[in-house]
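> example.struct
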């Protein structure tokens, strides 16, 4: 898994993006069954849609709340916090 230097939630990422860019965004949590229905409506097969929605449910409940060293291992540079990454992208 490739991560940044901090584990943040979807809502935290949205808040950071809003703060740094000045563009107001928010994360709205969608129930697992509703998310699966949205995937099906977008053309995904029902079984795959259910699996994707279940993965998101796991993320919502903390299954992926972790930080890895993959960025440093792969690039030789430390990962950047989302706030710094976004600020640098705005300057470029």
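> example.seq
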């Amino acid at each position: 898994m490739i991560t940044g230097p901090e584990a943040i939630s979807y809502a935290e990422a949205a808040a950071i993006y809003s703060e740094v860019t000045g563009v107001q965004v928010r994360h709205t949590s969608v129930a697992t069954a509703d998310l699966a229905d949205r995937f099906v409506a977008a053309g995904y097969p029902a079984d795959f849609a259910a699996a994707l929605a279940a993965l998101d449910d796991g993320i919502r409940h903390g299954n992926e709340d972790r930080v890895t060293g993959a960025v440093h291992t792969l690039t030789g540079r430390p990962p950047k916090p989302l706030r710094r990454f976004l600020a640098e992208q705005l300057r470029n």
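> remarks
The chain is about 60% helix and 0% strand.
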